[in-house]
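Hey, I was hoping to borrow your eyes for a little while. I've dropped the whole record in just underneath, so have a look:

——
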Amino acid sequence: MVLLSHVLVASWVRDSTDLASLVPAAQEFGLPLLPPSKAKNASFAQGANFAITGATALDTEFFEKRGLGKSVWNSGSLFTQIQWLRDLKPSFCNSTQECKDFFAKSLFVVGELAGNDYNAPLFAGKDLREAYNLIPHVVQGISDGVEQLIAEGAKDLIVPGVMPSGCFPVYLSMYVDPKEGYGPRSGCLKRFNTFSWVHNAMLKRALEKLRAKHPGVRIVYGDYFTPVIQFLLQPEKFGFHKQPPRACCGAPGKGPYNFNLTAKCGEPGATPCADPKTHWSWDGIHLTEAAYGHIAKGWLHGEFADQPIIQSS
């Protein structure tokens, strides 16, 4: 028995690049890709996408109070997107009961969020300890957002964790230091991966509390950490080249990562690789469509989730 209905209603991803993670899910259910919630004359009968470029879990005001406002360059947070959902409700349903029924047979994809929250202090040159101080606030923000969606009627949600930040060319290029500890097989910065692991552990504990509080709601933890590590350690399993963490689209910079802060993908001096399907890192910051596809399938069938989205008996 498939418990997840064939309606994919709402996705909160941090920016448009991450939308590739939703393609296999839509294909699995024979659905079109979701239109942006702000699209004019679009049909939202089968859902909407509420992505904001650089979205954070916490509102900008939180960062401004800590002197990090200039490091946050998005136009809204998770809570902005939830308000957009409320504004768009008339496009989904016309009564309280109809909305309740519609949301009850819908999948809410909440994230990946938190990466940009932590980038605020890190890209401002702050020590990793500053980012550690944010973890309880970020996890609480995601938890509060999930609570608000449940209050709106959500019954099936997938809440992703963060990726192993120490494996991404942007961090490997910014934090070049012979004293740093690198994974002997992965080449990733160990202290940054530990940081990502701590966030994910705290998020999973928060989701367990939500499950206990809302026994009639299914909350799935979506794992980004494990697959990215596997992309590096077992690349042939996914059709990727065996190489150090390396951007497909970029320019030579510090180290072998094909990443340069002054010539990022899309900027003068940067070029894409011949075949993105053989790379897991697209631009040193985001994944390739191929990588997102492997992860989404793992969420659907359980390889990269604490329970499969699609459950059959």
